[in-house]
Each structure stands twice: as structure tokens, then as C-alpha cells.
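Propose amino acids for all 162 sites.
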């Protein structure tokens, strides 16, 4: 019988992120406490640019965006935000959505699987994802449970379970 396997990836649904950004932009435009503050949020290439006339307002716009991401099912682990930076008379926050598993995190995940997972499970790094294989599907489900419980700074999805 062939080995069962699944892939561990870290991806963000770009359409859901775009929807969250549009909802946040509409809320910022309509909320009373943002009137006259020149607060805005928009895509700037691959990153997200937040502008406001004070540091607190920029943080508030970021909070609105984060709540919209959560409602859309996108983990905040995949959002990387900088500190508010003064640029002339406005403050800017540049945020990016992280995708892919870095080599460092892939090695951490592989070590967790080797140390704490069932012995029949093998993992290998393939670019920015990990492939996990075993003869037993129960062992694979145990690995998924183990990684969901682990406190990693990466948002993980489990694909191609076969």
C-alpha cells in the first residue's frame, strides 16, 4: 500500500484579504471618529498602506483592518505590521501579508514532528512548504493535531491529504 501524505503550507486567500481591506476602508470612511482625520487604508503594490494624521488614528485604522481579517478567517499571524512612521504631517503604517514557510520555520516544524510525532512519520521541506508522509493515516492526523496545538508564529494550512 502506498504512503499517505499531506502538505503543510502558509497561504493567504488574496480575495478574502482584499475584501477585508475594502470593508475596513468603507468603515473608516463612514465612522464618526475618523471624520476629518484624513485616515485611509489601501493597497500599495504588495503591501498595505495605512495613513492618518496622528499615531493613534493610524493604530485605530490598523485595529479595524485586523478585526475585518479575523471575520474573514485570515489569521493575524500572517499580517506583519510596522510601527507608525511620521511622514510630513501624517503617520503611515506599512503592513504586509506573509505567505510561505521560511526555511527556519520549516526546520522548527520538522523538528517538532521528529521529536514529538509518531515514529513512522517522515517530513521533507519542498521550497516554502513541507510534505509529511506515513503509512498510517492516524499518524498523519496526530501530526496535524500536534502542529495545531504548537505555538508557532506561522499560520498553517494542511492541504492535499491523501
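Proposal:
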Amino acid at each position: 500500500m502506498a504512503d499517505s501524505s499531506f502538505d503543510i503550507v502558509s497561504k493567504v486567500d488574496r480575495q478574502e484579504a482584499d475584501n477585508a481591506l475594502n470593508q475596513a476602508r468603507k468603515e473608516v470612511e463612514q465612522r464618526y471618529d475618523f471624520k476629518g482625520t484624513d485616515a485611509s487604508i489601501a493597497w500599495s503594490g504588495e503591501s498595505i498602506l495605512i495613513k492618518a494624521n496622528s499615531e493613534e488614528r493610524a493604530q485605530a485604522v490598523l485595529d479595524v483592518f485586523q478585526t475585518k481579517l479575523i471575520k474573514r478567517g485570515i489569521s493575524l499571524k500572517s499580517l506583519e505590521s510596522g510601527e507608525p512612521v511620521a511622514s510630513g504631517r501624517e503617520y503611515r503604517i506599512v503592513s504586509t501579508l506573509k505567505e510561505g514557510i521560511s526555511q527556519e520555520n520549516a526546520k522548527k516544524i520538522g523538528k517538532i514532528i521528529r521529536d514529538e510525532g509518531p515514529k513512522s512519520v517522515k517530513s521533507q521541506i519542498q521550497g516554502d512548504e513541507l510534505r509529511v508522509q506515513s503509512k498510517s493515516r492516524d499518524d498523519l492526523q496526530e501530526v496535524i493535531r500536534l502542529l495545531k496545538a504548537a505555538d508557532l508564529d506561522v499560520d498553517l494550512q494542511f492541504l492535499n491529504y491523501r
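The domain at 2-9+99-157 is CATH 3.30.70.860 (Alpha-Beta Plaits). The chain has four helices and nine strands.
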